[in-house]
Amino acid sequence: MTEPNPIPFWFLRHGETDWNARMLSQGQVDIPLNPVGIAQAERAAAALVGKGIRSIHASTLSRARVTAEIVAARLQLPVNLDADLQECAFGVQEGQQMSGWFDDWIAGITTPEGAEPFAHLRERAVAAINRAIAHPGPVLVVAHGALWRAFRQAAGLEANVRTPNALPLWVEPPSGGRGWHFTPAELAD
């Protein structure tokens, strides 16, 4: 199993979409940010000013790409796109309510028809994040909720924890006897 490289970085889940608001599984369906999501991305961009970010790496799906572009415009940086940072395919569950299948999918008990197995997503997520953080840092990675759950599992943390939309997280590797640690940025009201 690929392990996360012990390098600190910023992680940002994309802003809200209409499907997020309705608790529907998006997967690789390319749902755009809604007005709330755009405002969330702008607030995240303001929170990331002055954090020393040197490069931005994002999923190619528009909800993450546009979130990254909003931040990049504020930080005056380009966005490096990586298809391996895309959300996983949820197969027949795309467009459906998040439900009990999700826990079993993360546990590796079952994979919905046409979906990417969680173990495969974990390998892909860690490899893509490791590639991004190999750049001079601090690096910002803009991606998706299930992809972040996969990273959490690879980092030895509980996987099935919902990460809020567009809340920047400072991700620190294990040190001083503590495991991976995530500190949310302060957002202006």
Describe the structure.
With 189 residues, the protein is an alpha/beta fold. It has six helices and six strands. The chain has helices at 18-21, 35-48, 62-75, 101-106, 118-133, 145-154, and strands at residues 9-13, 55-58, 79-81, 139-143, 169-172, 181-184. It has a six-stranded mixed β-sheet with strand order 3-2-4-1-5-6, with helices on both faces. Helix 3 (62-75) links the parallel strand 2 and strand 3 (79-81). Helix 2 (35-48) runs parallel beside helix 3 and helix 5 packs across helix 6 (145-154). The longest helix has 16 residues, at 118-133. The chain is globular. The termini are far apart.
Order of helices and strands: EHHEHEHHEHEE
Strand fraction: 5-15%
Cα Rg: 15 Å
What is the percent of helical residues? 25-40%
Please state how the strands of the largest beta sheet are arranged side by side: 3-2-4-1-5-6
First-residue to last-residue Cα separation: 41 Å
Detail the poorly predicted runs. none
Mean of the pLDDT scores? Answer: 95
Number of helices: 6
**How many β strands by DSSP?**
6
What is the structural class?
alpha/beta
Shape: globular
- How would you sum up the major sheet? 6 strands, mixed
How is the topology of this model organized?
Blueprint: E1 9-13, H1 18-21, H2 35-48, E2 55-58, H3 62-75, E3 79-81, H4 101-106, H5 118-133, E4 139-143, H6 145-154, E5 169-172, E6 181-184
Parallel strand pairs: 1-4, 2-3, 2-4
Antiparallel strand pairs: 1-5, 5-6
Helix pairs in contact: 2-3, 5-6
